[in-house]
Amino acid sequence: MSKITIVPIDRVVVLNGIVASGVDMTSVDPAIHAIQFDTESSEGTVEYKGDPTKGVTPYVEVIASIEPWEILIAEAEEMNFCKRNPKTFYNTVPPVGRKIVVSERGWPQPRNSTEKPPTDQPYLNTSLYWDGSDYVWSVFPLDLSLLDAQNFVADGISEKTYSLLQPSDWMVVRQTETGKGTPEDWGTWREAVREESKVKRRLTFEKEDLASLSDYCNSTEFHSWPISPSA
What we know:
Layout: E1 3-7, E2 12-15, E3 18-21, E4 32-38, E5 43-48, E6 59-63, H1 70-84, E7 87-91, E8 99-102, E9 113-114, E10 127-130, E11 135-138, H2 146-165, H3 169-178, H4 184-206, H5 210-217, H6 220-223
Antiparallel strand pairs: 1-2, 1-4, 2-3, 4-5, 5-6, 7-8, 7-9, 10-11
Helix pairs in contact: 2-4
């Protein structure tokens, strides 16, 4: 390290031309405008603002050591290191697996993220949840009571049912407004979706513990729905 510049009011430390901004300056004398130092020559200056209301004019003090401000330099070096060596985290909630690049000091881990890339997602509506020792795929958060988990799953079933039926709702509206009937295959499929939704909700609330509910939610049976005529 050779040239050091510290500007407290801007919370900036410049180390050989590399800027670290957002440095904590609470420990710096508020009267200081800037600090300049050359570590090779061990020479530097401290520029003071002065205070006209007290008759104090700006002045410069020559210094032979940067020691009083080494904590600021250490923080700036850490910030610069994190910028050069960012960490990647991965979403544990939708969009699951999305990369989050962190270059802030200390690499703070974002909420709902993991350091390890998630393994292949078994089903689209599963998310990663912490089970106490690792992240696992699940349809519902693992810290819920059985009833809360069942309601959570039931809400998801309702949302899935709506998403399947909504694109063909216009056929029902057309029948109501014009009398033109819904094609038989579409009517049969829509009824099958509603019946499947009822079955899934019933089976959800028949589960007697979280383990059996989890097994059901991770089964092919739970994730299988009638195939639409347009498929």
